[in-house]
Specification:
alpha+beta; Butyryl-CoA Dehydrogenase, subunit A, domain 2; four-stranded antiparallel beta sheet; three-stranded mixed beta sheet; 11 helices; about 40% helix
Length: about 425
């Protein structure tokens, strides 16, 4: 196998590629295939010859400590006896047959590390797209796209948000999917298309307007499978989030110019886009929120360790400035968010997505804001280190703040909760 080796500090020029023997896997060991790693050492790499070794070893040690628990296996060991053992699908044939509630606990664990969802092949939007194909796709679509996704052989993208309309109201969509004989013609612009930057991204799910005067506004949208190499699909640019590019997958602006795909690429047929979106976003929001809870747990852990290890004015930081009360508040907030999310997962499993609408909207409001607040405390107790890349706190803060917009902003979900609550009293 090839390895990047270095004997001195410096820039990329000090690396050389050499042939080395593949390391033997010890009994009980796990081989982790790292597809991408970014190292931000700054001047430390010039000052300390061992700094790069430390950064790499700490990174991989954190992956091992946070992820290898209770028999979980990584991407390379994900297929056992023909089953994709970590697939977020309640399907005993394709996956472990976990319910939404069962899988929630796994999502929390992977949320403790930014790398974990990628390693375990349960990252967004792939996990949601897997659910769509499993629940709504036909057998040919499952064979061509679902199984390679489950195996981690390819990645996918979900095209929904548009740059020129208020996407918080999905009926505003201007992109179109029009039937022309035995083909579907796609036109429009999408952005915040997560996963599109990954070179392994081979398939996208495109949500667009399929005009039909005989149907109401919630039955005029469709979801269409679009191979990324189809003529007319153009990635215009990648869009950073707070200056971060979220490699390797990234978020892109993509234009569709008279893109033609077979009519069989409709998922469940034309006009079912909203139905599919609701089925997709319910469990998907559980995954997002539980990952937020895992990230918050990790942030609180880092804050406490920092507060116990550092002293100022002859006292540990935890004993200064009301930090003990903040620790207590963080614990309460995390546990409240977890219980609310688990309740939503239980309702989806037992009563169905439509019976859990209030709960799903509630957790989408609560969990990202909770993460944002807990991480803010952790950043404060770390001081200057907290706003650097020496910890994962800035990535967690980015995650929490971004999720307050993704899958519907806070205001939309609060509006949904209020509408459903008022409906109990006959109000509209």
């Amino acid at each position: 196998m090839k390895a990047a080796a270095y004997e001195t500090t410096g820039g990329p020029e000090v690396f050389r590629y050499i042939d080395v023997d593949e390391p033997p896997l010890r009994k009980g060991g796990l081989l982790i295939d790292v597809a991408f790693i970014g190292i931000q050492g700054g001047n430390a790499l010039d000052r300390d010859p061992d700094a790069l070794d430390q950064i790499v070893s700490i990174t991989l040690a954190n992956v091992a400590m946070d992820l290898i628990r209770d028999g979980l296996h990584g991407r390379l060991a994900a297929v056992q006896d023909g089953k994709y053992t970590h697939a977020p699908l309640p399907d005993p044939k394709l996956g472990a047959g976990l319910s939404v509630l069962d899988y929630a606990f796994s999502a929390e664990e992977t949320g403790r590390s930014m790398m974990a969802p990628e390693i375990f092949n349960c990252n967004a939007p792939d996990s949601g797209n897997m659910e769509v194909l499993w629940k709504y796709g036909n057998e040919a679509q499952k064979e061509q796209w679902l199984k390679p996704l489950l195996a981690g052989e390819i990645r996918s993208v979900f095209f929904m948000t548009e740059p020129e309309v208020a996407s918080s109201d999905a009926t505003n969509m201007s992109a179109t999917a029009v039937i022309d004989g035995d083909e579907i013609v796609l036109n429009g612009k999408k952005w915040w298309s997560s996963g599109v930057g990954d070179p392994r991204c081979k398939i996208g799910i495109f949500m667009a307007l399929t005009p039909d005067a005989s149907k109401d506004r919630h039955h005029q949208h469709s979801m269409v499978l679009v191979p990324m190499d189809t003529p007319g699909v153009e990635i215009k640019r990648m869009v950073p989030v707070f200056g971060e590019w979220d490699e390797p997958h990234g978020h892109g602006e993509v234009h569709f110019n008279n893109v033609r795909v077979p009519i069989g690429n409709f998922i469940s047929g034309p006009g079912r886009g909203f139905e599919i979106a609701q089925g997709r976003l319910g469990p998907g929001r559980i995954h997002h929120c539980m990952r937020c809870i895992g990230a918050a747990e990790k942030a609180l852990e880092l804050a406490i360790k920092r507060g116990l290890a550092r002293t100022a004015f002859r006292k540990p930081l935890v004993d200064l400035g009301g930090n003990r009360e903040r620790i207590a508040e963080a614990r309460v907030a995390i546990d409240q968010a977890r219980l609310l999310t688990l309740q939503a997962a239980w309702k989806i499993d037992t009563l169905g997505v439509h019976s859990a609408l209030t709960d799903v909207s509630a957790i989408k409001v609560v969990a990202p804001s909770m993460l944002q607040n807990v991480v803010d405390f952790a950043i404060q107790i770390h001081g200057g280190m907290g706003v650097s890349r020496d910890t994962m706190l800035t990535a967690f803060f980015n995650q929490g703040r971004s999720l307050r917009l993704a899958d519907g902003p806070d205001e939309v979900h609060k509006g949904m909760i209020a509408r459903l609550e008022l409906a109990k009293y006959g109000a509209r």
